[in-house]
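Structure ticket #2291
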Amino acid sequence: MIGPIVNSSATLVGGVVGGLLGDRLSEKFRTQLPLTFGAASMGMGIAMIVKMNTLPAVIASLLFGAIIGEILSLEKNIGRAASKVRGVIDALVPRKEGISQDEFLDKFVGILVLFVASGTGIFGAMSEGITGDPTILFAKSLLDLFTAGIFATALGLSVATIAVPQIIVQLILLFLGQSIMALTTPELVGDFSALGGIIMFVTGFRICGIKSFPVANLLPGLFIVMPISHYWGSAIMPWVISLTS
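Resolution: structure written out below.
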């Protein structure tokens, strides 16, 4: 569970340091640096996509996962949950002066989704549980350290509180990954990694502000990609081969 601990610690440290720095960082610095974070997320995504074993299974999982996410309105529900805890956060850590209530809520909900329910974090935690490799969460920790710091210069120390739901969610997903580790094969893990890479890639677009993909709505695909990949390899492909032979 080293990955979730390191990741949440990075968010906590970044939020505290950024909150204490306040407006000492220039507006240009705070605007341009997230573009680099987005590019890093895209690069990590591409590195994972190349591990793909079964393209049709991965694409099907992405599509079905998106449909499930839309039906469940995951993105909107996560936003609603974040808005409900705003009052508690305001009581513990008063919001920064100069920011309206609505502006604070809008930005805080957005970064809560980004840190807790991002494709990189969800995939990284499950990947560590399945493979034992915390590399993805380590890389995300570097991004979150600086990202939390930059957001905290505008929103204050409240950003540091995001570390709490972040580690809870990641630990749950890590233990879930460990429970299914014995049932996996290298091919299934490759397809799981590829789908996670796609989600990480579009997360980069969101961080850069290019396109606000509803990343949370894509996350159900991570839970169905292995069954679909297994079914494709054990049932559909032999049937296709028998028809063409």
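Closing remark: The two ends are 48 Å apart (CA to CA).
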